[in-house]
Amino acid sequence: MEEALRNYVQENLLNTPAGTQLELDDDLLGGGMIDSLGMMNLIAHIEEVYALTVPPEDMTIEHFQSIEVICTYIQERKVAS
Amino acid sequence: MSTLPLTNSQLLLWAGQEMLPDVPLYNMAMRFDIQGSLDPDRFQTAWELTVRQTDVLRSIFVKDGNFPCQRILPEMPAAMIRIDFEEEEDPRSAAEQWIKDRVQHPLDLEHCAWEAALFRLNEQQWIWYLNPHHLILDIGSIALVFERLAENYEGKHAHAAVSFPLFQTYVEQEVSSRGQISEQSREFLTQTLGQLSASPPVLYGQENQHKESATVRRKIELGERRSHSLKHLAQITPFRSFTQDLSVFQILATVYAAWLHRVSGQQRLSFGVPVHSRRTQNARQTAGMLVEVLPLVLEVGEKDSFLDVFRTVRQVSADLFRHTQAGMVSPELGRSFHAVLNFISTRFSPFGNIPVHTEWLHPGHADPGHHVRMHVCDLNNSGSFQLLFDLNCAVFDADMRSAIPQHILAILDAMLEDPTQDIHTLDFCTEEEKQKILIDFNQTYKDFAVASVLDLFQRQCSLTPNLIAVSDRETDWTYEALNDAASRLAARLSRLDVGDGSVVGLYQKRHPNFLISVLAVWKVGGAYVPIPANHPPERVITVLKDAEVACVISQEGLVDPLKNFGDIILCMDSEWEVIMEEEPYHPSEQIPGDSLAYVMYTSGSTGQPKGVMISHHSLTNYVQWAADTYTEQTALRFPFFTMIGFDLTVTSLFVPLISGGSVVVYEEPEQGPDLSIFNVLQDNQVTAIKLTPSHFALVDRMDWQDSRLQCMIVGGEDFQTHLAERMHAAFEGKLRIYNEYGPTEATVGCIVHQYESGSHTARSVPIGRPIANLQAYVLDNHLNPVPKGVAGNLYISGVGLAKGYLNHKELTEEQFVDTPFARGSRMYQTGDIARLSAEGVMEYLGRKDQQLKFGGIRIELGEIEAILTQHPAIESVVVDVAQQTSPAYVETEHACTQCGLPFNYPDAHFDEQGVCHLCHSFNTYQEKAARYFRSETELKHLLQQQRKSEADYDCIMLLSGGKDSSYALARLVEMGARVLAYTLDNGYISEQAKTNVRQVVSALGVDHIFGSTSAMNAIFVDSLQRFSNVCNGCFKTLYTLSTRLALDKGIPCIVTGLSRGQFFETRLTEELFRGEEVNVSTIDQTILDARRAYHRVEDAVSKHLDVSMFDDDAVFEKVQFIDFYRYCDVSLEEMMRYLDQRLPWQRPTDTGRSTNCLINQLGIYIHKRERGYHNYAFPYSWDVRIGHKTREETLEEINEQIDETEVEQIMKEIGYTPRFSGPREAQLTAWFVAASNPDSTVLRDYLAAHLPPYMIPTVFSPISAIPLTPNGKVDRQSLKSSMLTPQSTSSEYVAPETEIEEMLLPIWEEVLHLNQLSILDDFLALGGNSLAAIRLMARVNELFGLELALTTIFERPTVRTFGEYVEETILNLMES
What is the ipTM of this complex? Predict the structure, then answer.
């Protein structure tokens, strides 16, 4: 999942070739790679691919800081639902 | 050079600019103050390089045909301007002056979409000015361009070879992705669109009527403290989100929504939010226009706190941001808001190492649809947010423009202070506003020293003892005589122990005696309770008991039911002589101001009327003010013609009597409606009149030529501007017209406005300003004042307030509350909604609760409901006023997404995809329906089978000259049939169509007849009245005449050219295909039965044409109707090809549409006006459903413009008067659920025993259950809209028998807006009110040259009884 998500972010949000420098713990928001609207696109993608809904109250840095964190969040969400 | 289309967002800007080509609507000018030394040449080179690197800076905009496109030039010839201002006396202001001029200069988009300039103020101070059109850059892109410029200046990108992401790429992607919106986004969009209300929230009640664009920008520095608290709040859960920017945006959007809610009063809100499409790294590096303004739609709850609104905002904004895709904007979305919230996260960098101060300049104009825009930014990264407000100058005056930012700021402060507080409790008006609306507006002090109207009257008596004070038709009373009579009656009262504090019931008709009684009661120190003579005894008794009257002054004929009151009843008429023998009583002392003058009973929601107690002080204040205001040079003569129990009447009685004027009395009739207004106006004695707007509707068409009226006071209910204007015009401006507002609880009138022609554009005349010594306030539900323009609850305070409700202490405390901003004073909660207009006058907007005024008289619907519910047969009941209006025509943008059926088609319903129920259900029986259709071979066979060798022809073909019938005719000939072509010339067949007919029949070599009838116009009129179209009448004529022809010539078949769509419209209903098996012969039989009935309906056709052949069933066997297209399935395209190749047929161009008939447009016009949709919409939807037409083709035809002048001309020619001249009158309606269905007469009689006549519903409508809203409240709207046209009430239909009845019936039908009435139908039972009666009587008198009294219709309410009377009258006239 991490790989798929990383590729998506690289190709669709960062416009860099797949496999190049994006560490799983890179700070997406704080590092300025993605802004909040870009993150909204990522959320729409996650909701579609992983068939879950991200409620607005979950849209915080704690859940979406890095690829790693996002994956954990997705796992939790899937278990919860 | 590349030529590109525009993105959707650009298209909107382009269209906006096209509307106002010379206005700098979208100049995005920026000013950069560069504080350091600069090399101007190097700067210029850097700019030129930037332009070469940035494609969008080289784009120009041109039109390709009608479509705009953008061209990216290889080189941009335009250059940067350089000016050195150092030599100027004040270099900075010189530069600023230059900028100020240029900022407002429209850009020449065909040559260069930006202007750039560099100014030298001195060696260390430079200004760079860049003014791009918004079509090319948004603010983020300007920052990008500025950054690039700085980098180029520093030599970072030495060559043009450096490539930045192109705007072209973005445009191409946006354009190619159109129509590929993801499933989720589409769903979101449909949902958003579905939630958008028809009209966006109106801010402060203001509109931009002339779509003006001038705006001013006001800047508010939020300051460090507020910015800090804002950012602090953004860090706290639940406000915290991904980024501070997003959190701050959501908080500000909450504030904006709260403000919008408070100043629009709407729960459902929408405001525009610019959203950028820079989601990817490439897009983030693209300079261009990448922003779309989309609506944020949300609903605010009745008790929402900021936190609640925030949660909603968070949800809807997350949805919006998640689902937006570039290209989503549309004109429809763009029209859905008047307010924009623009959160700008862009920060501008310094110029290399040189510090820069950046400022966004305003061009002085904005989109006319954007009434308020609030931009939030911190362009210079100062740590403090700036709020920039663009405020439309046509919408808001200067006061409002300064107040609006303060309101938003106050709401922001409130949220920062306590986000858990209810947004409805906020007091956000500025102190200046409060001073103006609470204090200045209410400076009404005037010293009226006299304590009572009685004193004023007696003073007048000593001044003018011999002037006429009161007169009725028999007697004149001088002031002295009136006073004397009152004094004698007072003596009698006094002997009956009526004195200080006594309450006396005046249960009387209008008569001078009423005035004598009032004065007498006052003389002995008592108060009167007026009880109109037409009130049912039960109610009279209730009131007399409630008021604990010491005495009842009444008259013979009324007192019988009051036996229980025995010895306290005084009959003025029978005891007159005895009373007049009394010694006059003269009060020794003045009446104390706070003692009671009268108690007036008004309708109460509990089912019991309630008594309003008015003191002498209040009454005197009003009457003195009114006499001062309404009397000019000469004292006024008023009519006494309205109910004594209606406080409007107080004006007509006492204003003249304290000012030397007089009262003319018009007694009410024995029975039936009170139409004294006519007598008043016919007599033409009075110079002033006080009436209700409902009276106007009655006297609307009077001839005012010789009227002596000087002053007209309108009160009691909403006064519409057009009525005022009509009166103004009728009197050539010589009539003073006043609109007087006032609940009984504030003594007759408390706010007044003198009508000035031309100064009011709103629907209703304002109610104006408070009268002497009264105050009016518009407050919210928490008693805070609301700003100008915003609707709120109207409260009244001051001298005129009633003492309260008699014996209802709790209710008094509820309605009369302490004034929060004036210690020790009370105010009355009127229950009315009002607002203070921008011009500073009060406007009445309606009732807050269910209480309403009907004919100017206050009615609590609850009171009627309470009494009806007590009837044993009634289970539950709802009473309300329902108006039957013609549905407004809707341009068919909204139509079934499959077949084009309009959304307002009766009873149609649509699924989420916008597909109508007919399309859905057709899917279920389409296959079955197919079995009804036959093959061409069968048609040939049928024709041969029916062939009669003795006849010259096998069939008549009904040839309209249109494409369908021409094609059918040709095909019949091809099949070898001997055809007689028949065309009905209805007088409006276009010349080209006739030519087509002639050429087609001659080319085919068939015989042809043009049929006609002299009754055609009468048939059109009848058809318009019955069906709101002309086609039905025309078709029936055609069938009738052709059947007669077929019988005469022995022709066995008539072939029609009806389209398959028309089959489904007229015959093939869904019900025919319900069963498991479809039996075609059963269907044929059903259709034949329907045809039989059709030809036997009595209408204009049966009246004017020979229809005797239809009496005999045999005709339907002798002449068979064959629908050609039942046997032939041909597409439009194929048909047109055939016509082109084989026949000399031309598409008519002289009818303006694809019809061959010129009168058709009248039918379409009337149908649209009366029924709200095109009469072809339904058959066309069937053509689409069965695949003979496309949805687009039908919508194009349906939305064609109709030439109204031609339509008017045709109406004149055929003698048709449309019935939609005005809205139909509202009727008091009771919807009830009952086990056994009680007759409406029974219910009417029952109510008549409890309630005055004006409270008895006109319409009683049985329903199976009371509809409820989702909140469980009675769904009044649904009841009102479901209101069907009342139908004939008599159990059997009786057609007119005599000639007079025949002439009368159409008049009944017309004035009642009903069809197919029976001559036994009761005019009154069908909702015939006094207005309808007047129209009816006018028509009858004109028609027969009679002068029948208006009351005739009430005495003889059916065509039968009325007709007999007319006949009798005519005979009498002839004999005499």
Answer: 0.92
